[in-house]
Amino acid sequence: MNLEINTLNEVAAHALQLPPLDKVRLVERLMATLEQELAQPNRPLFSWRGLCADLGSAPSAEEIDEARREAWANFPREEIE
């Protein structure tokens, strides 16, 4: 029996149609795979600094202030009415 199942609701609908013994077997099989997945060590999480390490150093406060002054120097160019 080869079914194409796309959503959790479809899986549940098909599982509810199984005879009781097959439901038990399904639960046992799912529990076994769940135990295996939980027994595997979690992969290490990366910090945000580690993810951004290739971007180089951050701009200094002085550089940020200078860029802000340059950006706002001519604002607004025209009077807004």
Explain what the structure shows.
- This protein has 81 residues and is mainly alpha-helical.
- Helix content is 56%, strand content 0%.
- It has helices at 8-16, 20-39, 48-51, 61-72.
- It is elongated and about 75 Å long.
Describe the structure concisely for a colleague.
This protein is mainly alpha-helical and 81 residues long.
Q: How large, in whole angstroms, is the Cα Rg?
A: 29 Å
Which class best fits the helix and strand makeup? Answer: mainly alpha
Main beta sheet strand tally, sense and closure:
none
**Helix residue percentage:** 55-70%
Beginning-to-end CA distance, first to last residue: 71 Å
The coarse silhouette is elongated
- Which percent band covers the strand fraction? under 5%
Order of helices and strands: HHHH
Question: How many DSSP H or I helices?
Answer: 4
> Poorly predicted ranges (pLDDT <50, ≥5 residues)?
none
Keywords:
single chain, 81 residues, mainly alpha, 4 helices
Blueprint (SSEs and pairs):
Layout: H1 8-16, H2 20-39, H3 48-51, H4 61-72
